Amino acid sequence: SADTFRLQGLKQFKWQRRKMWEQFKMQWKETYSKLELWKHSLKKIEGNFGTGVVAFFLFVKWLMLLNLTISAMIVVFVVMPTVMLPPAPAPPSHADPCSVFISPDNQTNNEPVYCCSTSYKLVKNRTENETFIDFVQGTGWMESTYVFYGVYPDKVLLSDLLNYNLPLAYIGIALCYFLYSLASILKGSARGFKERLIEGEGQFYHYCNIVFAGWDFCIQNERSSVIKHKALYNEIKGSLEAERRADEKRNRSREERFKILMVRVIVNCLVILTLILAGFISVSRKLFEQCIRR
């Protein structure tokens, strides 16, 4: 417009900066859409099975990216400093509470007495070396790896450039990835709510919008057009099926509702009984092993 050409000085600089930022965002979105993970596979799934099925895989993809981000935070701020930096030495006057000592009551037998953690390590080392089972259950040799927080020292890590407070990093990183997870959930929920709100405004014209405005005119090859045809067909089919189920749910009789309620109660009771039985078996097995050791 004419006002744009009359901009001078700081206003023109702000306008150019805003324009460059918008162009950068558009280019970034285009690049991200080209490099998006599993894009073509998800489109193929959407075309063959509908939006309901692809939504599940999108959720799995979101969970995977969330877990990878959290894992990267833990590796960078907890694991790598522990591996690369040595812990601070303990003061000379500080006695190790887990050092081996001789009990006065057992001086004749010369039997050493250990603290709880040392005794646990000795018992663990005397157990059978079941590598695969330990890997699956996270026991045995797995307890001495960086997978468990108990391996990390509760001391400040020293280096020439900085002193890294590892105990503070435990708490700080845990708080950060919990907040990051919460922000990701809220962002996804807000996006979904916005999409449902937009779709809800035209709910009476849902099928008209799919038929007359659902086609992508940027498609230039036959394969993509076939996938798009299937996607539109499955979307209409899924919408009709959802309406049919909603009508059946609204028109249920009292006997059908009571039957469904009883089935749910019975299934939940069976699940609770199974969990109680599994817990009882686990406790009984543990007590039996302790009796055998004695």
UniProtKB/TrEMBL annotation:
The keyword Transmembrane applies. One of its GO terms (molecular function) is mechanosensitive monoatomic ion channel activity. The chain crosses the membrane at residues 53-80, 168-186, 261-283. Keywords: Membrane, Transmembrane, Transmembrane helix. GO terms for cellular component: plasma membrane. It comes from the Eukaryota. InterPro entries: TMC (IPR038900). This is TMC domain-containing protein. It comes from Laodelphax striatellus (Small brown planthopper).
